Every structure is written in C-alpha cells, then in structure tokens.
Amino acid sequence: VDVTAAKRAASAYLAQAGVTGSVSVRSGNVLDVTVTDSYTPMFLTSIGVGTLTVTGHSTARLVRAVQGTER
Question: Are 50 and 40 in contact (CB under 8 A)?
C-alpha cells in the first residue's frame, strides 16, 4: 500500500470538498482524517442560533488484500 498516495488522495478530497481538515499517518499504516466545517441551521436561526462549527474524525487502516486475504 502506498501510504503517501493515500494521504495525498485524502488531502485532495478535502480540498475538493471545500472543507478544512488534516490528514496524518500513524503506526505506518493508519490514516487519520479530521474535518472542520461550518453549518448554518435552517430552522434554529429563527430562535437566534447562528453558524455552528462541526468536526468529524475518521480512521482507516491501510492494507493490501488479494481475494479478501490480507497480504
């Protein structure tokens, strides 16, 4: 598995989606992605709730598999 290519692809995806985020690799094969964006609720604005900051985090273990078997 090309970890550098995976990191680059995740960063490109975040940029294309127009969100702020970070991508890192730990333990040699774990990709961590954290995303921060803003959200303006449609109905809550009527009671004074403004733009909210939202954050998401995901982790993926990068492995090579052949016919479903990890290699």
Answer: yes
